[in-house]
Amino acid sequence: MSTETDNDGETTRITRKGQVTIPKELREEFGLEEGDEIRWEKAEDGIRVRKATRSAGRGMLVDDDVSEEKREEMAEELEAEIREKRQTEWQP
Question: What is the CATH architecture of 3-53?
């Protein structure tokens, strides 16, 4: 994946599968981490990309009005429950 820098910012190429790499500097600046979701939006001048969610609680089936803090708490509880089951039920 090649990255080029010009006066308007950085450019990356789209792969055959339609994948793109977000430049490291932008990932760091906007706090984008593996597992985060981004939203692709149509704009008059092209495409706008926005961070949609945090990685914690991603994909959880909860109402949209549940706060990020509560999602984080729910995700941590679920993670602890899974760890406990792994230790007790999933031993070889």
Answer: Ribbon (2.10)
